Amino acid sequence: MKKFPIIGITTYNRCPAGEYRLNGTYIDAVQAAGGIPILLPPNQLDPASILDAVDGLIFSGGGDINPELYGGYVDRTVYSVNAERDNFELSLAKLALKADIPVLGICRGMQILNVASGGSLVIHVPDAYGDEVNHGSGIPPRAIEHTIEIEPTSRLAKIMGKTSTTVVSWHHQAVRQVTSDWRIVADAPDTLVEAMEHCYHPWMIAIQWHPEMSPNCSFNSRIFKAFVEAAASRFMNSIKSASNAIHTF
User: Fold this and answer.
1) Which of 128, 127, 110 is closest to 119 using CA atoms?
2) How far is the first Cα of the chain from the last one, in angstroms, to the nearest whole number?
3) What pTM did the predictor assign?
């Protein structure tokens, strides 16, 4: 029997060399939190089977989501759109929304969860929010630090143990409209949405910044720790349920 929860992490699309890749910082963060990471490239034929194989899901960062999928338009700022990855991750996210599997969305992953729920995105952050806060939103974007404020009553604030902090951002798109299924729980000084929590799912948190890029920050590490612990709890509950079913039979 496995001793640690299996955490599936979505990857980038196939590169010109034919490889599926992912920044190693995601893997490091999951391992440090006590999980076993496995990579989920977007060439999956049966996304539903993934939910039977993993105990938790991380939707990782990466290129832009096709704006046409949420009623937007493609302009000069949109880049690295990949139909295979969009289709796979949206299908997987819609399944996860209906399941009890713990889910963590990071950057693009937050945007994927929002679009899968019926929400929309800001096409290019500077066009909507100006330059009050630099979100690393150049073309292409680059990593940069800025502050955020977290809702004190949120699960995220309880996990991190604080209501304000400095985070690493690296994006030029962001959440615009959210459905009533989500609660916005953090924002940047310019009001850009930095985190949201699902109101009805057992454990689904989405964040716009990159906690995996702050490996020495204990507050960001707590996000992965809480997520992996939720995945481990789900796994143990499934074992108990199976055991009880056998004894009943």
Assistant:
1) 110
2) 22
3) 0.94
Catalytic residues: 107, 210, 212
Can you tell me which residue has the tokens 């699902």? 198
pLDDT tens digits for 80-125?
999 999 999 999 999 999 999 999 999 999 999 999 999 999 999 9
User: What does the alpha-carbon distance between residue 86 and residue 211 come to, in Å, rounded to a whole number?
Assistant: 23
Buried b (16+ CB within 10 A) or exposed e, 105-121: bbbbbbbbbbbbbebbb
Cα(20)–Cα(49) distance, integer angstroms: 20
The structure tokens listed for 146 are 């800025």
154 Cβ contact list (under 8 Å, min separation 6)? 183, 185, 186, 195, 197
Question: In whole angstroms, what is the distance from residue 30 CA to residue 106 CA?
Answer: 13
**Residues 29-55: pLDDT tens digits?**
999 999 999 999 999 999 999 999 999
- Which residues, 6 or more positions from 63, have their beta carbon under 8 angstroms from its beta carbon? 12, 13, 79, 80, 81, 82, 85, 108
